[in-house]
Amino acid sequence: MPAFPLKDKVAPIVWRGDRLRVLDQRLLPRRVSYIDCRTAQDVARATAEMALRGAPLIGCAAAYGMALAARRGRRELPEAAAALKAARPTAVNLAHAVDHMLAAARQADGSLARELERQARDYYQADLRANQTMARLGAALLRKKTRVITYCNAGALATSGLGTSLGVIRYAHHLGKVEHVYACETRPYLQGSRLTLWELMNGGVPCTLITDNMAAHMMKLGGIGAIFVGADRIAANADVCNKIGTYGLAILAKYHRIPFYVVAPTSTIDPATPVGDAIPIEERSAAEIVRIQGREIAPKGAAARHFAFDVTPRSLVTAIVTERGIIRPAGARALRRVLS
Ligand code: MRU
After folding, report:
1. Any idea which of 8-12, 116-120, 162-166, 187-191 has the lowest mean pLDDT?
2. Angle subtended by helix axes 55-71 and 40-48, to nearest 10
3. How far is residue 78's CA from residue 73's CA, in Å, rounded to a whole number?
4. Which listed residue, of 39, 72, 135, 209, carries a Cα 20 to 30 Å from 237's Cα?
5. Residues 59 and 140 both lie in one domain
6. Ligand 1 in contact with 39 (CB < 6 A)?
């Protein structure tokens, strides 16, 4: 059996000492092109404008953003932290990474720049190790030759290099436990069709694109053995916030008695948010709904709303896979145990 690649070939971010190179995911799959971020504000802008995305990745990039700010001196840190935290409100990994870097800065007694660069590297490496552990733990949930559905993109492009739910799927495929992946296209940003399909096809995993509204029919036809998704924030009671449409998929999975698995590192768990309904849901521009890749798909002046995330109640979640173990059933006490 060929060795399983523990990191994808295409890196969504690359640290170059004086800048962070960010793969512009808006251009995928047509073009692989990088943007240079030289300041924390550049990283914040690239995050807000979705050049990079995915909860763990925006955390790792924010850590490097703080390292860039540290190169300009300690006084830069509060402003950099505020800009990075404000870039996107829902994925808690962003605040987790920034707070981690601020704490490191408080303790640094040598060169601040060198210390924060080392901390950002460690943060990134820890995420990669978490991906690898989750892949191993999550794959153990499956028996042979399962057909799975996934949503959005929770792969190498959304993390430090392997993925959360897509890392599990890719490793399980390597072990012969995943036969086929159905990827929902994920309106309106099309992370499923543009990014997940690209990753799976590059990795040689048999996959088929379906539109979001085909998932129910696919489940009814039978043969779907599991659903795997990532998460942007998991509340203290184990409610799961993820890409808009995840909640609907979880309801469908329950109805069809298909296990619904969430894969997320512990940096996605937010003990300070008691329940899912308290999670701030990003609402993006309606222009992203009435246009697809620059082309109008609604009458001029049409009203539209664009919620970027939704919350799936824990009762619909079969298990949460973290790098510190599997939480099953998803509940507050089990979550606290994993965090401690
Ligand atoms: O808006 P995005 O593309 O940043 O949303 C990404 C998701 O919702 C992912 O499922 C989630 O961040 C987990 S990525 C490992």
Report:
1. 8-12
2. 160
3. 11
4. 135
5. no
6. no
Give the pLDDT band of residue 249 (cuts 50, 70, 90): very high
Whether 79 and 181 share a structural domain: no
pTM here is 0.96
Is 6 within the bounds of a domain?
no
Active site annotation includes 109: no
What dihedral angle (degrees, nearest 10) is formed by the CA atoms of 79, 84, 85, 87? 130
Q: Would 26 be classed as within a structural domain?
A: yes
Euclidean distance between the first and the last CA atom of the chain, given in angstroms as a whole number: 37
Atom of ligand 1 nearest to the CA of 163: 15
How far away, in angstroms, is 263 Cα from ligand 1 center? 11
pLDDT at 2: 64
Task: Give residue 44 CA to ligand 1 midpoint distance, Å.
Answer: 16
Annotated catalytic residue within 8, 232, 239, 310: 232
Is-contact 226 169, C-beta < 8 A? no
Residue 6 token pair: 């523990």
Rounded to the nearest 10 degrees, what angle do helices 165-174 and 112-139 cross at?
A: 50
The CA 89 to ligand 1 mean position distance, Å, reads 12
Contact 279, 221 (CB under 8 A): no
